[in-house]
Amino acid sequence: MQAQPEGTEWVESDVGGLAAALDDTELMIRVKEGHEPSFALLLKKHRSPVVHFLYRMVQNAAVAEELAQEAFLRVYRSRTTYEPTAKFTTWLFRIATHLALNSLRDGKRERQEERLDAVSEEAPARQISDRRPTVEAALVKESRLAEVRRAVAALPAKQRAAVLMHKYQEMDYTQIAKALHCSESAVKSLLFRAYETLRARLAHMA
Amino acid sequence: MELRCPIASQENLEWLLDYGTSRMATGDAAALERHLSTCAACREMVAGRRSVDAALDLWEAPGVSPAFNRQLYQRIQHETSWRDRLWAPFRWLVAWRGIPAAAAACVIAAGLIVAPRMMVERPTAGPAQPPVIRVDSQQPEQVVRDLDDMEMLHNFDRAVQSGPGSARL
User: Fold this and answer.
1) Cα distance between residue A188 and residue A177, in whole Å
2) A165 close to A190: Cβ distance less than 8 angstroms
3) Distance separating alpha carbons of residues A196 and B45, to the nearest angstrom
4) DSSP characters for B46-62?
5) Distance (Å, rounded) from C-alpha A192 to C-alpha B31?
6) What pLDDT does A114 receive?
7) How far does the CA of residue A183 sit from the closest CA of chain B (Å)?
8) Dist. CA B156–CA B161, nearest whole Å
9) Are A157 and A112 a contacting pair, CB within 8 Å?
10) Helical packing angle, A135-153 and A157-167, nearest 10°
11) Kind and range of the H or E element at A166?
12) Does B14 contact A at CB distance below 8 Å?
């Protein structure tokens, strides 16, 4: 594959209508057949959800992007052996979850926990809305956000992954179960416990 | 039919998580609503779930950096170039499409020639036998016969030397 300077030229110029015409599995089959613009299209569709999921898992933007690149690299690497046995997003999030859990296990967690107390460089710019809230309101919001992040970070890694996929990616229980290599009932139980824990920790914010 | 309490029975727990969202079927929502009107624990759970949802909504993820795609394609390029380097010594096999076919034909031909010979030269298959040392043994009668023959030749030789008339066999 040739490196793309911006990465999206293929998508915008050559395969504009491809996204509407083909679903992810069909796109991946095209990638398997050597159609590289389809890979660019899959990347465009799923890059943000994967990066956001990984960011909320590891709570470090740089690490999240590195892991997301690794996830897409693995997808590209596996293109020749790809078999559409599961939904593409399930497969992609399975890879992403696996990478995130490994990253947390490998001790990269310490780095991100340091950042929990300190306000991250990239987040505040997005958290302050255009309505220009007062400094006090911004601080309150920032403090609440830090609590949310801390509460999520304190969840066991699998519960955290389940909550993030359920809440932000709006994945169904079957998909989450496949991504986490467990049964649907185990996912429901994980989620129930996770939301209970969050409820207890964030009760005062209601 | 009355819904069994999800918390008490640990059945349909997901209803408490999904209540009020598009995940839940209308019929299920109606059944849960009837149950909520009588169950304080489930009502509290649903309220708590909503407040957690609201809190989680505060958390926006940062945007993806503009360098993301470039870095990813660089990694792909790097990996591909390494694979190319490893594959380079064998590339001519693919480039010259006739050569692999010719090589395959040669291998098959060689196999057809060599295989029958191997089958002839190695007729016995099975466990290797220890080498057998063959010792020729001569019977006593044979030795006696050989001695008689030698004596007869010796007499014949002497008869020839003494003259034609003295030859007695």
Assistant:
1) 9
2) no
3) 8
4) HHHHHHHHHHHHT-PPP
5) 19
6) 56
7) 14
8) 9
9) no
10) 130
11) helix A157-167
12) yes
Give the number of A-B residue pairs with CB atoms closer than 8 Å: 122
For chain A, say whether B84 makes contact (Cβ under 8 Å): no
- CB distance B61 to A56 below 8 Å: yes
Burial of residue B3 (number of CB atoms within 10 Å: 0-12, 13-18, 19+): buried
Contact at CB, A3 and B17, closer than 8 angstroms:
no
Quote the minimal CA–CA distance from A12 to chain B in Å. 14
In sequence order, which ranges of chain B are alpha helices (DSSP H)?
6-9, 13-18, 26-36, 40-57, 68-87, 91-95, 98-121, 140-162
Q: B63 φ, ψ to 5°?
A: -70, 160
- Best residue of A2, A4, A168 to probe chain B, by most B CBs closer than 10 Å: A4
- What's the residue count for chain B? 169
Nearest Cα to Cα of residue A23 among A73, A88, A94, A68: A88
User: Is the CB of residue B138 less than 8 Å away from at least one CB of chain A?
Assistant: no
Interface-testing mutation among B11, B14, B84, with chain A (most A C-beta atoms within 10 A): B14
CA atoms of A179 and A156, how far apart (whole Å): 16
Q: What is the pLDDT along chain B (169 residues), one digit of tens a residue?
A: 678 899 888 888 889 998 888 888 888 899 999 999 999 999 999 999 999 999 999 999 999 999 999 999 999 988 877 766 676 666 556 555 566 666 777 788 788 877 776 666 555 555 666 666 655 555 777 877 888 888 888 887 887 777 654 444 4
- CA B121-B127-B131 angle, 5° bins: 75
Higher per-residue confidence, A28 vs B92: A28
Query: Regarding predicted confidence, which is higher, A93 or A80?
Result: A93
Average pLDDT of chain A to the nearest whole number: 83
Locate A98 and state its tokens.
């696996």
Chain A residues within 8 A of B80 when measuring between CB atoms: 1
